[in-house]
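Late entry, evening session. Most of the bench is empty. Finally got around to the prediction I had been postponing all week. Sequence below, unchanged from the version circulated by S.P.
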Amino acid sequence: MNIPHDWIMDDTQWQTLIREVAEFFNNLTIMRGFQYYKQKRVGPLTFTESQSVMAEVQGAEAYEVVLRMHSLSTSHCTCPVNSPCKHMAAVLMNYAEHQGRPVPALVNAHASTALKQTSKPMGADSRRSYSFSSATDIENTPEDNNSANGQQYSEIKERAMTLAGMSIPDWHELFRASLRRLGTGTATTAYIQEAADELYAIKPKLSAAMEQLFELHVQLYLMRYCIPPARNSITHTPVYLSYPAQLAVDALQKGLESLLLQPLDLSGLNSEALEQVWARLNETAAYLRTEMLSETANMMFFTPLYSKLWLNWMVPHLQGKQEMLHSELTLLNDIEAENTASAGALPGAEKNTRKVSLPLPLVLAQSWMYYHLEQDSSAWEKLVHGSSAYGIPPEHLLHFLHTLMDSAEWRRLAEWLVQLGPLLANRRNAPLQDYMRLWDMTIQQVPEAEHRMWDTLVSMLPHSRPAYEDAMHSRGQWRRWIDFQLSTGTEPLEFRVAVLQPIEKDEPELLLPFYHQAVERYIGHKNRDGYKSAVKLLKRLSKIYKKMKQEELWEHFITTLAVRNSRLRALQEELRKGKLIP
């Protein structure tokens, strides 16, 4: 299909569209839209005189999308989502393809926009207009007036033509040579953006998979530039990122995570090209493994990327061949053995009976390999040991659980929830809320797993108390909820009325022992505040007995209570004020 001539975008309009996509869509919606685009769910595009693009997208049913290109925020879709949706994102990507523009630029809109927005604008003299596709455009830049620099740059461009067959260490050496003429700069978003432009300028034409790997390593190389060693080489004290460097790293991390969420495109590769891609993937895994092992718990940048590389780019293409996973696990176990042996060789090691603490990134990496091999017991053992040694950050534990949810492995997820729950027990509420949402989804698919949830929550007490109470209350487990409150001596007046109203409506008789015990405790305080609290509960009890049509039993109780405590004048006064006795 040909796009009308007056619809063709220039470079400025294209960059504006990328920025609008980042503002209009969240990252998850963009990723889902990309899946729909790749699955060719978008029908033919229709262009209207009002600068709108219309298309039908096949989702759960056929949805009509209208994109108003002059005002993207006024676009709409007939799907039930009342906000920017994946169907709209998919149509935009189809539109970009028809424009001859790179779809990955839209997929990575958030990352590229974040990087540019935090960069300081460069002056006209310092801007570079290097072409990513033409080797001759660069010759018009001021730097190439120096023939030596021009010749050196031509050699770099020529070396880059064989990039697919070069090893990853050679890629990084080529990056280093390419950035020499830029000079050493402070790790800021402005410098990193400029350096990225330099590196993209030497990129030759590559297959889709190699394009992804090239983009990955450009960002990895620049992130490594921004991050200092974990500890000062002289004082051995922890080192932290400066604020400008942190901004640059944050933007690079967003880009890397977004890139690794995209499927690795191995389509159209012959056997030789496929072999080259796998060689670069193996070298990438080795690079990330080396970088992550020196990281500390408070500065882990490469560790999450290592797990995502395996999870999203490598494991999906292993096609049942587990040799690569076994080989990686063997390497990691060898590193563990070396760490243990080194610790054993230290003075006084024979007296140290404690188990050697392994680097946290190593523990996580081993756990992921066991996870992929479905050796779950070994993965749990590693995580339990790692959690006792360091207290594994909850986001790393929850990543395992969310991965199982995404792959709909519900029975396996139930087992992981049981095992990892205690490791989250002493965390703040946010991880436990996420953990409980995962239980809710699991029980919907595997109802018989519900008793495992209750057992696990009980084993996590007292840290799991808020989650345990919410789970009982949201499921209408009123007897269990009341028994728990009675056993822990909770005061009924601590709860908002809205919490107790459903019980009063469904099973009011369950509240009788809860209220009666509290009334006796309040009276036992033998002070005015205690008596006032007792009267508040007695009024609630009066309503419950009336609802249960047991007014005679109530009259007998309140009369007996008043007589038994007749010497407590203040209590008698409060009972009369509450109109509970004459």
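Two things to note before I forget:
DSSP finds 26 helices and four strands in the chain.
Strands lie at 46-47, 52-58, 62-68, 76-77.
Will write this up properly tomorrow.
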